[in-house]
């Protein structure tokens, strides 16, 4: 009983003292509960939380139970990555030692509409889960655009809302988009680069870019900033004016399924090494041309399947699932993506039993990509 | 046992070691579940190893409780409060044991690699199952709120003993010699 300051001493407390002391305890309790609520975001309606980001997706796309909140339309693929060994000097990650690792991937279209029709200008994505020996994993999601249109979670949220269809006209409100672009000059610059990109005829001859920067860490602990891309080995063919199979809502996916059935499709994993002052925290900014590039190896995709029953479906392609030897950069989008993907994953996991069949069905894949 | 007025030193050490860890864990958890900010990655990378540390210490604490039983409450404590004290301690022990296990289990069911630090990982303890994951993930949240509420009740009761009843119950844990 060495703690005997006045308040904590022994002996009875006067009834007036009891009231004061009860009040003090109440203040302590309320402060703790208030701090908890504050940290949880309940006291800050303006704070962009995971729930508010998901609500924005739902506002724009409606509810599609069991589907990803973004990149909702996709198919699963499998194959392998064969390392060239050339990136092993830059990163100690086991995946870069010469040899093969299994890949479970997913091709998708950006956007939260799981039944949207394929179209040339829609952003295509490739997600890879590389299963390293010993239980390590590398998950990455890449898009066929050269830079990302926004550089923050807030920018993404505002762009999402600005592009949401007006309930009356069914089209985005141009004034709202104008106001968004006026407030986000980085998006205006990025959109110019995105519009200039050459759109190829399909998934198989698209180049997919990590957009966010990461860091490769070598065996000695030295690190360099990197961005990576998967560059098709298949010859490039520019998108013709008319989609090849007019009227096929899944023509991009069907084309890929048919190509994989015919022959394994391959991409080289090209790692671009940034220099000290190249921006790593802003995915809207390209790195200068001529940066050193390393051909880390080849991704081969030899099997496609519908999402229904496919091996990619139960996977969250969280960009922060990285093996030892690859680390996140200071890009704030990485944390935002990881957090938003996790919440999207949790929501759709809870809806798993209500999920409608995916746009590209098991039958469609079995028919070789022709429904 | 009635002559014992303080918790044994090992019990006090474990209590005061784990108290800040658990409170930090609750705040980190509620914060990261809301966050889209760059802090998210940092919070997650603390949450996982801290949770496993709590699990290990909790096992040590359960063993310690059998070796070093706690002192009896003073005779002046009414039976209803005695019951509340006992029940809330069962809830606290249960939660500090099962919350890390649910966290580990839900990450297993989602097939996230369960990275503690660098190359240190835990193996999955449940099958890859999205419905199971969603259920455990929701349970993790609900029990976290229950944990925080029980912590508040526990802390409030401790202050009530220390400031108003002044019956030595607070001092039985909060004394430093």
Describe what this molecule looks like in 3D:
The complex is a heterodimer of chains A (371) and B (177). In chain A, helix 2 crosses helix 7. Chain A is globular, with a radius of gyration of 25 Å. The model of chain A has no long low-confidence stretch (mean pLDDT 93). Chain A contains eight helices and ten strands. In chain A, a hairpin with a 5-residue loop joins strand 3 and strand 4. Chain A is of the alpha+beta class and 371 residues long. Chain A has one domain: Catalase core domain (Catalase HpII,  Chain A, domain 1). The longest helix of chain A is centred in the N-terminal third of the chain and has 25 residues. With 177 residues, chain B is mainly alpha-helical. Chain B has a single domain, classed as Up-down Bundle (Fumarate Reductase Cytochrome B subunit), CATH 1.20.950. Chain B is 71% helix and 4% strand. Chain B has a two-stranded antiparallel sheet. In chain B, strand 1 and strand 2 form a beta hairpin. Chain B is elongated. Classes of the chains: A alpha+beta (371), B mainly alpha (177). At the A-B interface, helix 1, helix 2 and helix 7 of A face helix 1, helix 2 and helix 4 of B.
Number of helices of chain B: 5
Largest protein interface, residues of each chain: A-B, 57 and 50 residues
Low-pLDDT runs of chain A:
none
What is the fourth-level CATH superfamily of chain A? Catalase core domain
Percent in helix of chain B: over 70%
**CATH-derived topology of chain A:** Catalase HpII,  Chain A, domain 1
Notable traits:
heterodimer, A: 371 residues, alpha+beta, Catalase HpII,  Chain A, domain 1, 10-stranded antiparallel β-sheet, 8 helices, 10 strands, 28% helix, 21% strand, globular, B: 177 residues, mainly alpha, Fumarate Reductase Cytochrome B subunit, two-stranded antiparallel ribbon, 5 helices, 2 strands
């Amino acid at each position: 009983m060495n703690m005997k300051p006045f308040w904590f001493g022994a002996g009875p407390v006067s009834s007036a003292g009891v009231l004061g002391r009860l009040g003090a305890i109440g203040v302590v309790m309320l402060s703790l509960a208030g701090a908890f609520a504050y940290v949880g975001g309940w006291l800050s309606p303006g704070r962009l939380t995971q729930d508010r980001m998901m609500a924005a997706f739902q506002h724009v796309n409606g509810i599609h139970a069991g589907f990803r909140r973004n990149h909702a339309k996709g198919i699963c693929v499998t194959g392998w990555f064969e390392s060239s060994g050339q990136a092993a000097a830059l990163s100690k990650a086991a995946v870069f030692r010469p040899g093969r690792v299994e890949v479970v991937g997913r091709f998708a279209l950006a956007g939260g509409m799981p039944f949207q029709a394929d179209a040339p200008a829609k952003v295509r994505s490739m997600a890879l889960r590389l299963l390293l020996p010993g239980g390590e994993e590398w998950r990455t999601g890449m898009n066929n655009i050269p830079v990302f249109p926004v550089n923050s979670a807030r920018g993404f949220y505002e762009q999402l809302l600005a592009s949401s269809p007006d309930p009356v006209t069914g089209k985005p409100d141009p004034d709202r988009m104008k106001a968004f672009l006026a407030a986000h000059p980085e998006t205006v610059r990025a959109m110019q680069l995105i519009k200039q990109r050459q759109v190829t005829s399909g998934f198989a001859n698209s180049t997919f870019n990590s957009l966010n920067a990461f860091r490769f860490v070598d065996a000695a602990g030295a690190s360099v900033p990197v961005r990576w891309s998967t560059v098709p080995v298949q010859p490039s063919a520019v998108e013709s004016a008319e989609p090849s199979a007019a009227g096929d809502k899944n023509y991009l996916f069907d084309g890929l399924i048919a190509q994989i059935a015919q022959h394994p499709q391959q991409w080289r994993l090209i790692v671009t090494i940034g220099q000290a002052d190249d921006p790593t925290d802003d995915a809207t900014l390209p790195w200068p041309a001529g940066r050193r590039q390393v051909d880390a190896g080849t991704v081969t995709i030899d099997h496609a399947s519908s999402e229904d029953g496919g091996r990619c479906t139960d996977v969250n392609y969280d960009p922060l699932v990285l093996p030892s030897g690859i680390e996140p950069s200071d890009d704030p989008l990485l944390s935002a993506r990881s957090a938003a993907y996790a919440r999207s994953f949790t929501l759709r996991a809870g809806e798993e039993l209500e999920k409608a069949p995916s746009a590209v069905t098991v039958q469609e894949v079995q028919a070789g990509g022709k429904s | 046992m009635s002559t014992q007025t303080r918790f044994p030193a090992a019990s006090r050490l474990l209590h005061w070691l784990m108290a800040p860890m658990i409170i930090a864990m609750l705040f980190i958890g509620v914060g990261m579940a809301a966050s889209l900010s760059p802090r998210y990655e940092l919070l997650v990378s603390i949450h996982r190893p801290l949770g496993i540390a709590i699990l290990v210490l909790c096992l040590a604490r359960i063993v310690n409780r059998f070796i070093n039983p706690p002192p009896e409450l003073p005779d002046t404590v009414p039976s209803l409060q005695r019951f509340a004290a006992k029940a809330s301690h069962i809830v606290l022990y249960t939660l500090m044991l099962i919350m890390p296990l649910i966290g580990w289990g839900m990450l297993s069911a989602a097939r996230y690699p369960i990275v503690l630090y660098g190359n240190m990982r835990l193996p999955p303890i449940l099958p890859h199952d999205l419905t199971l994951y969603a259920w455990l993930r929701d349970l993790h949240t609900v029990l976290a709120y229950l944990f925080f509420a029980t912590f508040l009740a526990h802390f409030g009761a401790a202050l009530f003993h220390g400031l108003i009843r002044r019956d030595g119950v607070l001092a039985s844990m909060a004394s430093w010699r």
